[in-house]
Design a protein that fits this description.
With 130 residues, the chain is mostly helical. It is built from four helices and two strands. The chain folds into two domains: 71 residues, no CATH class; 49 residues. It starts with 8 loop residues before the first helix and ends with a helix. One of its GO terms (cellular component) is plasma membrane.
């Protein structure tokens, strides 16, 4: 279906595959929060993401070099340009959230709302840039 609509594999990986591989962590964290085991929830999410980014990407890179940016079509032109705007948006959300989370030492409703907004803005920017 992605090939039919000419959706780059990068977008499929960033959305469908990412969602499918993150659902177990989400379920584990939700159960931990309901059981008042917040440390397990945060540790699970952060540990899983650190493992996936550092260990999995590092291991794959040892076996076979991989292209981080595959060619994508933007305005009818093929490019491997780094998605600067998306990177800046997500970095900005991270920088805004740091003082909010550390001020009260919690990730509350405001932080959660900002994180979800950041997620949706990231995808909106990603697909609008196509």
């Amino acid at each position: 279906m992605a090939e039919y609509y000419h959706i780059p594999k990068l977008y499929i990986g960033l959305s469908i595959v990412a969602l499918g591989t993150s659902l177990p962590e989400l379920a584990t964290s939700l159960v931990a929060v309901v059981r008042q085991e917040n440390e397990i929830s945060v540790g699970n999410l952060i540990g899983s993401n650190i493992f996936n980014i550092l260990f999995v990407l590092g291991g794959v890179g040892l076996i076979e070099p991989l292209s981080v940016l595959e060619p994508v079509m933007r305005n009818g032109i093929e490019t491997t340009e780094f998605p600067h705007l998306q990177f800046l948006v997500m970095t900005g959300f991270g920088l805004v959230l740091l003082p909010i989370c550390y001020r009260k030492n919690i990730i509350g409703r405001l932080s959660g709302l900002l994180l979800l907004c950041g997620y949706f803005i990231f995808y909106w920017q990603l697909f609008e840039g196509r």
